[in-house]
Amino acid sequence: ASEGLQVAQTLLTPLSGGALAADSSTPGLTMDDINQAKAVLADAQVRLADALAAYSQLDQSALKGPLAKFGKYLALLPEAPPIMSEMRVLLDSAPSLLGIGQNAYYLVVAMDRTELRPAGGFMGNYGILTLTGGRQSAQYPLSLQDTYTLDGDYYKSVYNQAPPHTPCQVGGPQPPNYFWWWPYREDSACQYAWGLRDTGLSPDFPTNAQNAEAVVLATPNKIPDNGKSLQGVIGFTPVLIEDLMAVTGPVAMPSWGVTVTPQNLESLIHKFQLTGYGGHTNQPRKTFTHDLSTTMLDKIKTLHGAQLKQVFKVAQDALKTKDLEVYFNDPHAELILQQLGLAAQISSGNGDGFFVVDTNDGGNKANLFVNEHQTDYVTLLPNGGALHRLQISVTYNKTGFVYDGTQNQEDYVDMQRTYLPGDANILGYSGFVPVNTFGYPGCPYSWAAGISDTTCSPVYTFGTPITASDVPGRTMVFGSLFLSCGRSMDPTHTVETAQDFRDIGAHTGNEFVGRFDYFNGCFYNGPSIARTQNIYIEWYTPHAFTIGADGHGTYTELVEKQPGSADFATGDVGDYLTVYVDTSLLHSKNGFTGDATITSNDQWAALIAGKKPLPQYNNMKLLENTLVSFSF
Q: Is the distance from CB of 15 to CB of 135 less than 8 angstroms?
């Protein structure tokens, strides 16, 4: 134990004040520190082996009276060897991870969850964190910049490597093939094709991180000292900053005339970034975000002792909620994150469960007002299989600005993927809005994949849900949602199905109406109302649980949480989870003989009538990956 503390002291003393301190008065970590820590750790491992050998021969009954309290500590000994092994691996990787001998560079991306993407939000700002000896480089301090600037340079860099043709029209960088459905691809301004801002489209953060790194590394002069490599990617949502402010206190921004608090952080970013520059009209659009990040980091650098411990706790919690996501290129360091369940990766799909992933492709901040309730009705069957009927109820209650910019549409447009176990059998789905029921303005076709498919090409569209999964080992259902902003000719109407769109189109005498001309309900006067679209997905998971000889057992399923999807300040906006488990057929000889497919709200209401959800999973905020457990 003493040697373990010595290892910690050897590593942490040079980092007094934290990795972001950027204090040039001390050298930070050196290879001598790493070698010293390795030597002490090796000796500690020998002593640990001796202790485990002695523990194996210990008569537990001897731990009585005053000795009893030592039993719980000794019981932890078997957990120590793998921790020691992980420490040894990390010490081997430390020089490259911490910038010992040469600088280490990390891509940092800030994600706007009000324009929700699978990684946690739209990646509108980025920076490069440079570590020297485990501390932030004083020469190259971290500051956030506008992603669009990088993407414009990336577009030109990639385009100029292509065969000669008219500059910046077509043929720019394209997304990976598994994002075939993504409509934002080509633009004559040399910046709106595939870029860093859209690399968060996968439900798997390591995949997003690798795509983001590829963009940055292909763009010249974005890494200090002409660096050619990155050690990893760090992504965060505003929730991390809000929680850090609970430690640092509010952040005064006198030049902007505001004091930033957890309550007004996101609204101020939108105000200065999207609607005006607060007297800074001669500066870039995202100057406020840059100034705020710099000021916030300066406050964190001053923290010591108990406050620094609170910062570590905030970061630890944020890793669990995925408001902080970290990816290491070093396979050993990344493996440890995975083993701790902190890699923000999609699960392998072994076992039962599901993962609902939303992608706001509407070019606005509509997720400020979106509530999503996931309700899973699970029927346990005698053969150990589980029948699922999942309702995903999405409500859009627009009560404020959605910052639609030049897009001129205030509706909620969403591409939704629900990932199921790898061995799941899809039984049915309903409630999605086929994208070929309305046309993109100016296109001669009756389909639309998103608001920026200016080529009017059917290549990036789908008229019915897709079940060909883009994640190996996972089954998937992929469809589209469309929710009016809340004003329409008929304020009592709820849009839920393709027929609903045809009904609205009938008001104009045109079944295939243009999205902006007619589907943008805010075009019409009327009271603001909430719109709800209910999606139903049914599947069967074989071998979901085991029944013991006594007829009892335990059923579990993993419900994964999308980063950036929970707990806004505006009402009950966020993701919620409810789970029912039905055991009525568990001992039936005939098993399930009914119709699993739910196609209407009435059918769903009849299914849950008189049933009680599991108390601990009833209208529960889905704040992190949740393992649902039910014993029968």
A: yes
**H helix count then E strand count, the chain:** 13, 19
Answer yes or no: are the C-beta atoms of 123 and 154 closer than 8 Å: no
458 vs 193: CA distance, rounded Å: 18
Within 10 angstroms of residue 102's Cβ, the number of other Cβ atoms is 12
Q: Strand pairing partners for 110? A: 125, 236
First CA to last CA across the chain, in angstroms? Answer: 43
In the numeric block, which tokens belong to residue 91? Answer: 């010490």
Q: What phi and psi, each to the nearest 5 degrees, are found at residue 335?
A: -60, -40
Residues 395, 266 contacting (CB under 8 angstroms): no
Residue 569: per-residue pLDDT:
56
Q: 589 vs 38, 382, 584, 586, 632, CA distance in Å?
A: 62, 8, 12, 9, 18
User: pLDDT for 122-137, tens place per residue?
Assistant: 999 999 999 999 999 9
Output the DSSP codes for 68-126: GGGHHHHTTGGGHHHHHHHHHHHHHHHHHHHTSSS-EEEEEEEEETTS--TTSSEEEEE
Pairing of strands 104-112, 232-236: parallel
User: Rounded CA gap, 302 and 233, in Å?
Assistant: 25
Cβ count within 10 A of residue 573: 20
Residue 71 token pair: 């039993």
For helices 31-56 and 2-12, the axis angle rounded to 10 degrees is: 160
Taking the C-alpha atoms of residue 321 and residue 562, their distance in angstroms, rounded to an integer, is: 9
> Which conformational region is residue 385 in: left (phi greater than 0), alpha (psi within -120 to 50 degrees), or beta?
beta
> 556 pairs with which residues across the strands?
629
* Average confidence (pLDDT) over 164-172: 57
User: Is the separation of the CB atoms in 431 and 420 below 8 Å?
Assistant: no
Do 223 and 105 meet the contact criterion of CB atoms below 8 Å apart?
yes
Q: What confidence tens digit (pLDDT) does each residue in 147-161 have? A: 999 998 898 888 776
C-alpha span between 420 and 475 (Å, rounded)? 5
Helix, strand, or coil here: 603? helix
CA distance 367 to 564: 10
Q: How many of the other CB atoms lie within 10 Å of CB of 316?
A: 11
